[in-house]
């Protein structure tokens, strides 16, 4: 039987299941401490495998297209935060203060890697530039995101010790990534052959963090402090933010004279936020009880961006083929 089109993908269903399980049977006490150590090890393995999977050739491919990369990074680390702040009078009443802080955290995160590249490829955009932009955004986010979190959230929501947060992220995320890059010399071919299986490492690590985060938040009374009306407001807020970003990114790329292939890359690389990077970063930056509210906007936004970008990618993919050497159509 064919899968219903409106049914979320399996990973999203697993995320929902992890939230429900944590709400009903939260891990706490000494078990939570042990679970935290297991989660940290899983996150280290996740970034080690990211380092081992990403070839240096892929990182450098398209790197000379500096105008495109500069626009993508500006959208990711400047446009998103500015929109998050400017929309506070609208978003904060919709979702409440705690979830609004989570929305600001979302705005500070780097772009996705896998889905940005996948959608760019499906839409027949500049894939080499997408690989370079997404990979570099993920690396820059390790250093930029903690500073943005402090600037956006201040002492109220984020860690005041910015250098300490960067140090923690460096140890937990960057060092495993670098170790993976070094180990790629010996395990690179094995990683290439097992990419589909290693996807389980990514998803399993995220599920562990989500379960642990929501367990701590439930123990602290998450669902007593966030009513259903605020969850509905969160859904509306994520749709508003994504719609504004998509329109602004596309218009900026068009006005700056990029061709269709580059505009596709800019749209998908500049409008997305990374769940795979954001959840581990939240583990480092926020205390256990507050983390559930911090990552909930990211989880909702992640699913919406996937569904919307899938529709956009299919629409771009249906445009007529252009013979090599011909000028690219405007849209």
What does this structure look like?
- By secondary structure, the protein is mainly alpha-helical.
- It has one domain (10-317): Na+/H+ antiporter like fold.
- The chain is built from 15 helices and no strands.
- It has helices spanning 10-24, 30-53, 56-60, 66-86, 88-95, 97-107, 114-122, 127-157, 162-193, 195-219, 222-225, 228-255, 260-270, 275-285, 288-317.
- Helix 5 (88-95) packs across helix 6.
- The chain is globular, with a radius of gyration of 20 Å.
- The chain starts with 9 loop residues before the first helix and ends in a 14-residue tail after the last helix.
- Residues 155-160 and 324-331 have low confidence and may be disordered.
Quick rundown:
The protein has 331 residues and is mostly helical.
Please indicate the percent range of residues in DSSP E strands (runs of 2 or more).
under 5%
Principal-axes geometry comes out as globular
Number of helical segments? 15
User: Main sheet?
Assistant: none
What Rg is obtained from the alpha carbons, in whole angstroms? 20 Å
CATH structural fold name: Na+/H+ antiporter like fold
Mean pLDDT: 79
Instruction: Tell me which CATH architecture applies here.
Output: Up-down Bundle
Distance between the termini: 37 Å
């Amino acid at each position: 039987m064919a899968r219903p089109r409106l049914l979320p993908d399996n990973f999203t269903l697993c995320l929902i299941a992890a939230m429900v399980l944590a709400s009903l049977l939260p891990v706490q006490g000494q078990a939570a401490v042990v679970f935290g150590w297991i989660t940290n090890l899983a996150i280290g393995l996740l970034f080690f495998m990211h380092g081992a999977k990403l070839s240096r050739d892929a990182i450098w491919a398209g790197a000379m297209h500096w105008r495109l990369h500069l626009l993508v990074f500006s959208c990711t680390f400047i446009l998103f935060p500015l929109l998050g702040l400017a929309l506070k009078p609208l978003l904060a009443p919709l979702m409440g203060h705690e979830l609004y802080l989570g929305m600001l955290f979302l705005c500070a995160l780097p772009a996705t890697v896998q889905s940005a590249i996948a959608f760019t490829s499906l839409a027949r955009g500049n894939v080499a530039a997408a690989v370079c932009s997404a990979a570099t955004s993920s690396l820059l986010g390790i250093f930029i995101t903690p500073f943005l979190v402090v600037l956006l959230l201040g002492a109220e929501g984020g860690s005041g010790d910015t250098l300490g947060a960067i140090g923690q992220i460096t140890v937990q995320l960057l060092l495993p990534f670098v170790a993976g890059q070094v180990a790629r010399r010996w395990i690179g071919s094995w990683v290439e052959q097992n990419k589909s299986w290693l996807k389980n490492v990514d998803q399993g690590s995220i599920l562990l963090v989500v379960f642990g985060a929501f367990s701590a938040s439930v123990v602290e009374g998450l669902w007593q402090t966030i009513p259903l009306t605020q969850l509905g407001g969160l859904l509306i807020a994520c749709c508003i933010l994504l719609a504004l970003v998509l329109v602004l990114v596309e218009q900026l790329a068009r006005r700056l004279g990029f061709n269709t292939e580059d505009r596709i890359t800019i749209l998908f690389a500049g409008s997305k936020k990374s769940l795979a990077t954001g959840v581990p970063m939240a583990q480092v930056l926020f205390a256990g009880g507050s983390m559930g509210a911090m990552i909930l906007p990211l989880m909702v936004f992640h699913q919406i961006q996937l569904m919307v970008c899938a529709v956009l990618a299919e629409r771009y993919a249906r445009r007529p083929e252009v013979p090599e050497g011909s000028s690219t159509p405007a849209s």
